[in-house]
TrEMBL record:
Pfam families according to UniProt: Acetyltransf_1
Family annotation (CDD domains): NAT_SF
InterPro entries, sorted: Acyl_CoA_acyltransferase, GNAT_dom
Species this protein is from: Streptomyces exfoliatus (Streptomyces hydrogenans)
Protein name per the record: GNAT family N-acetyltransferase
Domain (N-acetyltransferase): residue spans on this chain: 163-299
Length: 299
């Protein structure tokens, strides 16, 4: 067997990316995603495409922020690993899978091949997540009416709230950021993401009790693929009262009032309280995602 040849694509040969079968339905999941041809790469063996990866970022990004389409042909895990290792960008890898993929042997086998390739390339699993998509036929979640919502122009207010929220968090990305740089790093990464989103800063809102006590924040947003629940967070002293649902309902309403015809969202699978809130608000799970990150020293 010959060694795989890794090839970066361009507008003239971008069609090669479509040469592999799509057993996990990635194409449907990315129907609104815009990929740059020169951020796509394939691995060929004897002239046949046996692995592919699409790196992705925002319209103004000079480098990709993640890999969110990665496939390998049956038995080609090493070619997939070589494809990942060869890339000039070491960024997070997202493997998006159909909901309940472990329950079907064909989906499980296809998924596990991709997971094996990622691990062989030096990537480590960070977290498994649920991906949600609300549509109007689900009905808007009822607003409980317990909180007072309002815009806040001072980023410092959100930074302070994020530090408090992440001081007791179940979110794997925030926990990793705190391991690397403490609460300030975790809060700043969230703020940087909110500012990166191509949606108005004026949408960010704080939530208070009628007595004026801060409950939390919610960030309705647009990412490059459409309207999304950017962030829901309750400060530690206000937890246990079900306020995350209030924030989620308000966030959904605001996006719809701004013209959203669907709303996406995600949460870590281990965050059982937030998953329950999404179910209560009428957000069905449409996909699952495994987030991998490059291990220290991986090449």
């Amino acid at each position: 067997m010959t060694d795989p040849v890794i090839r970066a694509l361009s507008t003239s040969d971008a069609h090669l990316f479509d040469a592999l079968p799509d057993p996990l339905g990635a194409r449907e999941g990315h129907r609104r995603t815009r990929f740059r041809p020169d951020w796509k790469r394939v691995a060929l063996r004897d002239g046949e495409v046996v692995a592919r990866g699409a790196w992705w970022g925002g319209a103004d990004d000079s480098e990709p922020v993640n890999i969110n389409w990665f496939d390998v042909a049956e038995g080609e895990e090493e070619a997939g690993a070589a494809l990942l290792r060869s890339a000039p960008w070491q960024v997070e890898l997202e493997i998006n899978l159909p909901g309940g993929w472990r329950e079907r042997a064909d989906l499980r086998a296809a998924a596990e091949a991709r997971l094996a390739a990622a691990r062989a390339a030096g990537y480590e699993l960070l977290v498994e997540r649920f991906l949600y998509r609300w549509t109007p036929e689900r009905g808007l979640p009822e607003r409980p009416g317990r909180l007072r919502f309002g815009a806040e122009a001072d980023d410092g207010v959100f930074f302070d709230a994020l530090r408090r929220i992440h001081s007791v968090t179940l979110d794997a990305h925030a926990l990793r950021a705190m391991e690397e740089g403490g609460l300030d790093k975790a809060a700043q990464e969230e703020l940087d993401f909110f500012h990166w989103c191509p949606s108005p800063r004026e949408w960010w809102q704080t939530a208070h009790t009628p007595e004026g006590d801060l409950v939390g924040i919610h960030i309705p947003a647009h990412n490059p693929s459409g309207p999304t629940i950017g962030f829901i967070g309750v400060v530690p002293e206000q937890r246990g009262r079900g306020y995350a649902y209030d924030l989620l309902a308000e966030c959904t309403h605001l996006l719809v009032e701004e013209g959203a015809e669907f709303v996406t969202a995600a949460t870590d699978q281990g965050n059982f309280p937030m998953a329950a809130n999404f179910a209560r608000a009428g957000f069905p799970v449409v996909r699952e995602r495994l987030n991998f990150h490059p291990a220290a020293g991986a090449v």
